[in-house]
Design a protein that fits this description.
7-stranded antiparallel sheet; alpha+beta; 7 strands
């Protein structure tokens, strides 16, 4: 058996076993591509009218939001600009809740209390990440299916590769005037090749979340030297607290506004415990995530604390650190703005079509093979029936 035949068998059986999973992962990614833009259009509580008044400080926003969700643990307050609502974020993995309280940052009026685990796009995201199974089961299944898909892409490129120059032309074009079966074959073969390079990018960025060994291998191959594990530095519980009538988080908030006047968003995180720091995430471009400055301050003295992982200041990030930070924005296409999201959307749609067109190719060949077997069997029957019957020669009886 030749190398291409072995590759063809591998491509076929991997496709039949993982095709449905690949379709679900791709089509949910396709639907999720413009979730932010769609929610902005359909959820007016995300916006407020810009005013000349200052924003309410984080502690006041928290007091108002806590009254809406008593007993729940607040994660932070996200300020998103003059024309957007402030968002109080409540989260607990153990108790399984993830809630948002949208407020007018000027007046403190509550605009919406939202369960982030509910809603259409959360349903789509759970399918994309976990196939709607428990995370501890669904996540490794999705990661494994993505790894299998990478093998299928590589084997597909091998099968697509023309043997000679004369056959190269048909590999790049679809014969639209051909019969349906031929068009379907071309759609799988030709479009599969064109989208394969983008699909590999989508798959590799997905594997960064799927497998720790892949994430670490990619990071260190790119020259990374820091830790990939997020960890917060510790506040000094023996230090003398700063003297101020304002709460430390509010003092820090005022300082961040002055230091980063042009920021797209500022997220203030409250300390989780006595040793936890005050954590601030400052994003110059709210449409992406990779440029965020992650800052940590002693909650008692407001002294800035250094970290040795990739989630620190952007100016301290090396090339490998930036690559890891860019992973989500590359995966969604947001790294190059709206055109990138459109490209990611179309690529995901084409990837979702590949298992369908591939299955139809296999089913058509299987059906054709059965028909040929039936025709061959019928032909043999007709030949047997048309043959003259020869008389049997009897042996002479013994005298």
């Amino acid at each position: 058996m030749t190398f291409k035949k072995i590759t063809g068998k591998l491509h076929l059986w991997l496709g039949l076993t993982s095709g449905l999973l690949v379709f679900i992962i791709a089509i949910t990614g396709c639907i999720y591509a413009f979730q932010e833009e769609i929610q902005d259009l359909t959820q007016p509580y995300r916006f407020v009218e810009a005013q000349e008044e200052p924003f309410l400080p984080p502690s006041r926003i928290r007091e108002i939001a806590d009254a809406q969700l008593p007993g729940k643990h607040i994660h932070g307050i996200l300020y998103q600009g003059k024309e957007r609502a402030a968002k109080a974020i409540y989260y607990s993995y153990e108790d399984h809740y993830y809630d948002f309280v949208y407020l007018n940052p000027y007046t403190g009026d509550v605009l919406k209390v939202k369960d982030a685990y509910k809603g259409f796009f959360r349903f789509i995201l759970d399918g994309h990440f976990y196939l709607w199974m428990p995370p501890e089961i669904g996540q490794p299944v999705v990661a494994t299916a993505t790894l299998v898909f990478v093998v299928m892409l590589i084997s597909g490129i091998v099968l697509w590769w023309p043997r000679n120059k004369s056959g190269a032309k048909q590999r790049f074009s679809i014969k639209w005037n051909a019969r349906w079966r031929r068009k379907n074959y071309d759609l799988h073969n030709v479009l599969g090749f064109y989208v394969s390079w983008l699909a590999l990018i989508l798959a590799f960025t997905g594997l960064v979340w799927g497998f720790q060994w892949f994430k670490e291998g990619l990071y260190f191959a790119a020259g990374g030297e820091k830790s990939l594990e997020y960890a917060e530095p510790l506040s000094d519980t023996t230090a003398t607290a700063m003297e101020s009538e304002a709460k430390p988080v509010d003092v820090l908030w005022e300082s961040m506004k002055s230091s980063y006047p042009e920021s797209g968003s500022i997220e203030m995180h409250f300390p989780e415990g006595e040793e936890s720091p005050l954590h601030v995430a400052i994003n110059p471009d709210a449409s992406t995530y990779w440029q965020i400055d992650y800052l940590y301050f002693d909650q008692y003295t407001l002294k800035e604390l250094p970290v040795d992982h990739i989630y620190g200041k952007m100016e301290q990030a090396g090339a490998a650190d930036k690559l890891m930070r860019m992973n989500y924005d590359i995966h969604t296409g947001a790294i190059i703005g709206l055109p990138g999201k459109i490209i990611a959307f179309l690529a995901s749609l084409l990837v979702a079509s590949l298992p369908v067109s591939g299955f139809l190719i296999w089913w058509g060949r299987r059906k054709k093979g059965k028909n040929e077997d039936k025709q061959s069997s019928a032909k043999q029957d007709r030949e047997l029936k048309s043959r003259p019957i020869k008389p049997k020669h009897r042996q002479p009886l013994a005298q």
